Give the backbone structure.
Amino acid sequence: MSAKFTPKETIRVIEKDGLLREVMAMKSRGMRLSQACASYKDGKYELSYSFSDDKTLDYETLRVVCDLADRIPSIHDFYSCASFYENEMRELFGVKIELIEPDYHNKLYRIKAETPFLPEDAKAEQKKQEQEISLSGADSDLDLAQAAADEKLASGKKEEK
Amino acid sequence: MEEREKKRSVVPFGPQHPVLPEPIHLDLVLEDEKVVDVIPSIGFIHRGLEDLVKKRDFNEYVYVAERTCGICSFGHGLGYVEAVEKCMNVEVPIRAKYLRTIWSEMARIHSHLLWAGLMADAFGFENLFYQCWRLREKNLDLVEMTTGGRLIYSVNKVGGVLKDITPDMQKVILNNLSELEAELRDVYKTFMTDYSVQERTRGVGVLTKEQVHDLGCCGPYARASGVARDIRQLGYEAYGELDFEPVVSNDGDNYARCDVRLREVFQSIDLIRQAIAKIPNGELSVPVKGNPDGEAFIRIEQPRGEAIYYVEGNGTKFLNRFRLRTPTFANIPGMCETMKGCSYADIPLLVVTIDPCISCTER
């Protein structure tokens, strides 16, 4: 008879501000990033980051529930393989993930339609929330960091030419 | 002697290339013939299948899930129905679990032999390619006999399976698998001992156990680097009743990947024999009432590695979300890492060794 595992499978809801701290804790525990995905439910995003323990096959999912205009930091610094997942979440659902590396600029799947998996009413709500944030000046630090990253990329392309 | 200054050049590879089974584009940064960086891009065959779940009855969607890909078809159908069954607390009859296990292993034999043929073709051993695909036909005949299809099985439903494998069919399966096994030994021996094969595979594209972990790789690709992880050990379907251990190799190169996948074909034959010996009589399915509510993650071991299925129901017949993370999606970062430092001529082999399925990956 094969060794049969009885792994723990959990979904834990965390605050978006605690995402990097929790992901770092997963990394330090030796957990492998299995998948990350987004879904839209009741006017909010549900972002799921799933981690596996290769010894016990335990499966832990960190769940971030956030507003449509919330900025989410990339977890690339801890898991370099997160890029495809994060590019996918941003392109299909419009999740505002910042400082993805490498950044495919919403063209991972080369889709012409903008955020095709997000309902139309949610797109309008997202724009409204973004305007409110821009008027209040919140998240300006992340804006500056993203602008600096874009500028660095553009200057790198110029040098290549 | 003064070292010559090495200029870098970028060579586009794909999406259409004689060796590529499916479209992926790689920007290869070269110094002379040596690859120093790789930038992958996909997005040539995205179909938005996940979003279609909002417009199809959750029972009908089984057929969409199965058509995500031709090679992993059965596994995608299985992963989807398992996720819905978990959501709805449906307990599938034991006979159905055994039948699903048998078909899963037939799909693995098919996928691995197809891959072995493509690999042989990639390193220019055409006769070996023919032999692998000839053996694959024997397995496809069994699939056709038991399901009516050769690639798309269409036997899964929420609550069980649609078709049975009769005792007569079981005899034919055992007989044909014995023939296949005997002939596969010669193919395996050629892969493992032929000088020209070893020249192209030994020490090429090495991925360490640590890299596998950091880059999130899975399946035979990870097991060839010494990671003894096989999701079938979770015991889903009838796997908990069967005796097996993960097939592992430690070298982490192309040779080890050939070794692991071909040994897994022998393992699959053994698992089918065990399942046929133990399969109980009983119902094929149970009636399913109501609609899915809640959410569920399911992991299964597809031929190419760990596949993850997530469904989120809302109490209606239309699901709110279906998510599929395919093994190739997880293995692309590892593939790019193995290419760094390799010769340009090794790129086709390094693409093929992850057993890429871009059709699944893009969904």
